[in-house]
Amino acid sequence: MAVNTQPIIRLTNVCKSYGDHQILKDINLELEAGKFYTLLGPSGCGKTTILRTIAGFTDATAGEVDFDGQRINDLPANQRQVNTVFQDYALFPHMNVAENVAFGLKLHKVAKAEIETRVQEALALVQLADFGDREISEISGGQQQRVAIARALVMQPKVLLLDEPLSALDAKLRKDMQYELRDLQQRLGITFLFVTHDQEEALAMSDEIFVMNDGKILQGGTPVDIYDEPINHFVANFIGESNIIPGNMLQDYQVEFVGKTFECADAGMQAGEAVEVVLRPEDLDIVAADQGKLVVTVDSQLFRGNYFEIVAYDNDHNEWLVHSTNPADEGTPIGLTFDPQDIHVMRLHETEAAFDARLEQYEDD
Amino acid sequence: MQRKQRLSRNTAYFVPYILWILLFVIAPVLLLIYQSFFNIDGQFTFDNYVTYFSSSTYLMMTVNSVWYAFLITLATLLISYPTAYLLNETKHPQLWLLLIIMPTWINLLLKAYAFIGIFSQAGIANQFLSFIGIGPKQLLFTNFSFVFVAAYIQIPFMVLPIYNSISELKPSYVNASRDLGATNWQTFSRVIFPLTMPGVKAGIQAVFIPSLSLFMLTRLIGGNKVITLGTAIEEHFLTTMNWGMGSTIGVVLIIAMVIIMWLTNGNKRRSGKGLTK
């Protein structure tokens, strides 16, 4: 990662409240040029508010919003070099497809011939080259989505903001659009800031994810980092499926849970500290009961297509979720085994800064 | 069998409505058309129409009616659009809307008489004009006061449909317009106004058509300086007893209304679709 590059967007201590209700609590984030970022969190966590603050539709109550090193808190939305793809697309129904895409260019008094070529290019970019004359009401939801993207991209923004743009599409189309958006971003090399509550979408598309809850950014990092090393219970639960079990850190690289001691890959905590242990369902392998590190009894299972989702309980009544390619027999005991790296230990109430510092410290050893 | 029963039960619901339309809309219009082909002596003739379209008096009345209906509609629109727009920005739009609608609960005649009081030589309007040193003036029985009072009476009927279309406008359209670089004025003229045209058209229909046949206000407030078609119909039915001629004017008015409805309903292709939240 280049150290000297100026972040294209920087939020410093941004807060937003409506009356007594705090929507954003001290948000700090930096976006580098040319990357695909995702704000991920449940509805009402404030992710869309961050987008609106950057777009200029809402003012931050406190803090600073910088664009390319310039403070833009007081710059009206129509003068910011960012464009938005709206959740409901917000295509103007009184204009056809080409008129919608040309709207911004006309406002900027671009020459007529240039408007025409740029609109054509933008429509070609989203594979709608022949759709210019169609009315908005005549095209499908997926096509409207593309027009909305073309309308924003034709303005050649430095940052494209996408507010849950895929949420109204069906599963198949959504998957196609994920690939297409990712591809578009890489081809154009502009910064995308994508808002979603769908963790799969976030993991699949992003260079970096910011996981949010309750007006705060809990953790930022690459999809792999966040999946493998969630900072706390919420993140572990929200990203993918997890078994989260209370445990005790005995010493560095040794953790105790369900009454047994296991070797693990985590360190930097106090001896005897109460922690939470995360084990991903797909990291658990089923073996014969006498060979398992843990013995659990299968309660129920669901066939999910490419795997079986097995729910089992251990003797302490902890629930264990296991993803297995082979079915298990309900009501029978099975053994579970896993590698030390599969265990991820989380401290309670650790901040992101402390978490990063600790990780750096013991990873350097 | 069962389906047939349900079908006939459903049609039964329409009976009161159809009866109403037949008795109070279709039948009177047919009677009016029938009546318009008889002269004052009860003989069948086309003379009424010939007279209407060859007499400068009637043509002048037509021009006057259309012109004043246009002025009233324009004044109403100029007041109502900003009102509806601001109403949508307020915290309690329903309360303000109620206040705007309330005057319609009062009888038209009462309101007209109230304005006679307000606009009279010793009325409150002239008291105010004297106070600021430019009065008293002749306010009553002027064309200005006629348009003023007519617009006052029509405003609620214009505000309501416009308010509805503005409040149903998705806020993301406005944000999208700003996002693409539009100033507030450009957003208004290129997005908000075109998208609220259905409300404006509905308001124009609701105001222009009744304004065409206004007759009481022309006398009470306008002092009969402008003779509109409405006044002419009243005169023919109640004073000269030339029902045939009165009916002819009525038929002309109905045709004018149909033309206006057709004009304001036209070009539906792009408006009114997908506008709601």
Question: Count of DSSP helices of chain A?
Answer: 9
Total DSSP E strands of chain A? 20
User: Low-confidence runs of chain A (pLDDT<50, min 5 residues)?
Assistant: none
Largest sheet of chain A: 6 strands, mixed
Radius of gyration of chain B (CA) equals 23 Å
Assembly type of the chains comes to heterodimer
Q: Return the structural class of chain B.
A: mainly alpha
Q: Within the largest sheet of chain A, what's the order of strands? A: 6-7-8-3-9-10
Large-scale geometry of chain B? globular
**Helix/strand structural class of chain A:** alpha+beta
Written as H for each helix and E for each strand, in order along the chain, the element string of chain B is HHHHHHHHHHHHH
Question: What is the CATH homologous superfamily assignment of the largest domain in chain A?
Answer: P-loop containing nucleotide triphosphate hydrolases
- Distance, first to last CA of chain A: 22 Å
Biggest interface, and residues per chain? A-B, 29 and 23 residues
Task: Note the main sheet of chain B.
Answer: none
Low-confidence stretches of chain B: 269-277
Terminal-residue CA separation of chain B:
41 Å
The dominant shape of chain A is: globular
Primary descriptors:
heterodimer, A: 365 residues, alpha+beta, Rossmann fold, OB fold (Dihydrolipoamide Acetyltransferase, E2P), 2 domains, 6-stranded mixed beta sheet, 5-stranded antiparallel beta sheet, 33% strand, B: 277 residues, mainly alpha, MetI-like fold, 13 helices, globular, transmembrane helix (chain B)
Q: Would you mind describing this structure in some detail?
A:
Chain A is α+β, with helices and mostly antiparallel strands and 365 residues long. Chain A has two domains: 7-226, 3-Layer(aba) Sandwich (Rossmann fold); 240-358, Nucleic acid-binding proteins (OB fold (Dihydrolipoamide Acetyltransferase, E2P)). Chain A is built from nine helices and 20 strands. In chain A, the strands form four sheets. Chain A has a six-stranded mixed β-sheet, with helices on both faces. In chain A, helix 2 packs across helix 3, helix 2 runs parallel beside helix 4 and helix 3 crosses helix 4 (141-153). Chain B is mainly α and 277 residues long. Chain B has one domain (56-270): MetI-like (MetI-like fold), CATH 1.10.3720. Chain B has 13 helices and no strands. The two termini of chain B are 41 Å apart. Chain A binds chain B through residues 55-57, 76-79, 82-84, 86-88, 90-95, 103-104, 107-108, 135-137, 151-152, 155, and chain B through 170, 172-173, 175-183, 186, 190-191, 194-195, 269-271, 273-275. Chain A: Part of the ABC transporter complex PotABCD involved in spermidine/putrescine import. Responsible for energy coupling to the transport system. Chain A: Belongs to the ABC transporter superfamily. Spermidine/putrescine importer (TC 3.A.1.11.1) family. Chain A: Its EC number is 7.6.2.11.
